[in-house]
Automatic annotation (TrEMBL):
MF terms in GO: phosphoric ester hydrolase activity; zinc ion binding
Name of the protein described by the UniProt record: Histidinol phosphatase-like PHP family hydrolase
Alphabetically ordered keywords of this record: Hydrolase
SMART domains referenced in this protein's UniProt entry, alphabetically: POLIIIAc (SM00481)
Entry keyword annotation includes Membrane: no
InterPro entries listed in its UniProt record: PHP_dom (IPR004013), PHP_phosphatase (IPR050243), Pol/His_phosphatase_N (IPR003141), Pol/histidinol_Pase-like (IPR016195)
All residue ranges annotated as the Polymerase/histidinol phosphatase N-terminal domain in the record: 3-77
GO cellular component: a single term: cytosol
CDD domains on file: PHP_HisPPase
Pfam families the UniProt entry points to: PHP
Keyword Hydrolase: yes
Amino acid sequence: MRYDFHTHTVFSDGELIPSELIRRAAVLEHRAVGITDHADASNYRDLIEKNTLAKEELSKYMDDIEIVVGVELTHIPPKSIPKMARKCKDIGAEIVVVHGETPVEPVAEKTNYYASISEEVDILAHPGLIDIETAQNALENNIFFEITSRKGHSLTNGHVVSVARELKIPMVINTDTHAPSDLITYEFARKVGLGAGMSFRELENSLTTNPLEILKRI
């Protein structure tokens, strides 16, 4: 079974409406999908409301896949991250992902740091060349590190695995899906993890054990 906690719909910059995203994920044997559209102060309420409605309706007919309503806080002022994460959780977000300091976008410095000190952040996506001190904060706040299949963001997967291994930070393998072709199978996710340098135990944890831990939070 496959778990993916980082996807986008037409409500931000994705190509699919929620129903098609979930249908395509189900065909690829996903057990759970997090819908985490790009959010800031202007749209987080609307995103959570719309994707909650989609979850409520789809869940009536699809009981073999769990839909997780979330957001990806993206390019927001770093100091606002803890406050925004709390606001999102307060109005119904089940998970909060933060758009980390990927090497291929001009993400503001200290984004990783302010995400790492928030108790409401669940996953730090593509955190780039994250430092040990920031990673230690993330560990203390039970934040998962993302290993990504997405082109560009994946350049620093190996570094992220190395830091996570040193501190025993749990990892998950996500896609950052924007288009149908971005969704991946369990077997391809294994290749992503192994290519990033994961051990077989780390891989198993990232694909099964850690996703189940995230679902327990909801």
